[in-house]
Amino acid sequence: MKKKVGFIGWRGMVGSVLLKRMLEEKDFLHIKSIFFSTSQIGEKNPKFSNFLFPGFLKDAYNIEELKKLDIIITCQGSLYTQKVFPILRSSGWSGYWIDAASDLRMNKDALIVLDPINHMHIKNAIYNGIKTFVGGNCTVSLMMLALGGLFRQNLIKWVSFSTYQAASGAGSKYIKELLEQINFLNQYLSKKSTFSQSILKIEKNITSITKNFDFPKKNFLIPLILNLIPWIDSSMPNGQSKEEWKMESETNKILSTENNNRVLIDGTCVRVSSLRCHSQSFVIKLKKDISLHKIEEILSNDNKWVKVISNDKESTLKELTPLSVTGTLNIPIGRLRKLNIGSKYLSAFTIGDQLLWGAAEPLRRMLKFLV
Ligand code: NAP
Question: Does any ligand 1 atom lie closer than 6 A to the CB of residue 322?
């Protein structure tokens, strides 16, 4: 019998990318899909040209309806997980919970899923009766896929990162706000007279428009367009942002490293005005001095999505930008070179689509393991 799978948060950024991938891979043929909403209860189920889901959206807060499901996959976000998961579990529901939100990741009875890296842990967890599976933080998953070979061969002593994270990483409201910011600037830029002004005058006017009280910034709090925000998520007591804290803690949980063998990872996470795809720059200290050629071989051979990009300007502009990666499962890694500070210090730059491998794809593949 087909498993009953409930979809929560399918309308958001991650959820809609998940449905798109499931349609592409014909995953819906193997499950009975039930759609829920927190805000549009009673409206029609999603409709696609090649797939119809007859029926109406159920209430995502109705515990009795949720209890009927074998598997719940939620991309609704933290507030929903915090509100529903404990009540559902304490009601005796023992189905599988697959989640995109961060809340349950570090729970001891939950596994962070990224199967090209921790496939064996996932298999063991299912065998051992684990019922809660959570997608990793987007930058963590993208870093691990890019550096998979070096992690697998235990070659990394520490990694220092700087991220360049897209606006869409914050969710639908934020991407709309970025576009509203562009629109606001356009009121000045689209005037014919604007470009006849001197360049310094244009720059001054643009700066003063972005500082205007009415500039749209309800969600980001400050303008993101023509700017950047070096803080993502809440604050940790040690001065890190929570996004920065997740890099080391989640990576080591995914790798199941012992306390004395943890990979040290720290750096700065930055929101930039890219539309989609997160970029990351790394300084990596290797445990031993290995040749760049060997490093490239180790990286390329780890999984079928990672691709080493030759360290030259033409290849970098062609294959190592958010625009060249968006909407694909590709994980290019380039700018690979040994740093002048020593032969064990490697520099690298990688990009991945944070809505695909950074969010929806590990969840889709987890669902597939279960059905
Ligand atoms: P999102 O786009 O804000 O969607 C979340 C929910 O907001 C939707 O399911 C929908 O719920 C509601 N919503 C309200 N207005 C909407 C609109 N105009 N368009 C679409 N949905 C709207 O959030 P998200 O970015 O997908 O993130 C979901 C979870 O995944 C979060 O926990 C996030 O931290 C995590 N995550 C996100 C990313 C990313 O790149 N965005 C990456 C990794 C993990 P109703 O239909 O019930 O109203």
Answer: no
